[in-house]
Amino acid sequence: MSNLELVKRVELPYNFEKAKEKFSETIKGFKGWSFPVPMWDFYKAVTSGGFELNNIKNMVVYFICNASYASQIVNIKPEISAVLPCTYVIFETNEDKTYLASININMLGEMFDETIKNIINKVSSIEDEIIDKMLE
Question: Which among 76, 90, 110, 120 is placed 20 to 30 Å from 82, CA to CA?
Fold first, then answer.
């Protein structure tokens, strides 16, 4: 993963269903982190409207949040709530490869002052740990 890309993507070593289970378990293992809204079946939402996703067999979107970090950031700059909570996508290609993708929040942090950037860097470190757990 390059720190210069806006979206981070890693190939996971297991199938789509196992990836969803592992992601839920992984997030629950990080103190203070939760799912503020249910998982969104993006693939179903798009294809049920008659549209196609090229080379995508399954895709779900998760929204995760640490209320402590989120509140610190929003208390400084309320409009940042437009990019909250953290969004992760798990998708499966037609070649049966499964990926995890998310925004590179370190890059996002570069757009703000030092106080917000420091909070985002803490979140980024935790997100790196989440990705590492997902690769185990």
Answer: 90
